[in-house]
Amino acid sequence: MTTIFEAIAILRKVFDKYAGKEGDAKTLTKKELTDLLKEQLGGPPKQAEMDQFFKMLDNDGDGIVDFNEYVVLCATVCKGELTPVLR
């Protein structure tokens, strides 16, 4: 397996660990995403920031974050654009 596929597999594994605890196993609710951020990145933003952040990630406005939207989160973290929000 190539490095890029290994990285995608890790992203999927983390997503799957948190998705589905409150509903569909193929999506993250706001609480599931908050739990993911808390455990994986050292803590979620404050509630108002989390609401804004979730709205930004929920690109199609359906109230959940799917895997594609989650990948946007991961890319944003890698680019260092969430550092002020997650402190």
From TrEMBL:
Top-level taxon in the UniProt lineage: Eukaryota
Keywords: Calcium, Metal-binding
Residue intervals of the EF-hand domain: 45-80
Residue ranges of the TM segments: none
InterPro entries: EF-hand-dom_pair, EF_Hand_1_Ca_BS, EF_hand_dom, S-100_dom, S100_Ca-bd_sub
Family annotation (CDD domains): S-100
Keyword Metal-binding: yes
One of the record's GO molecular function terms: calcium ion binding
Presence of keyword Calcium: yes
Designated name of the protein: EF-hand domain-containing protein
Natural source organism: Oryzias latipes (Japanese rice fish)
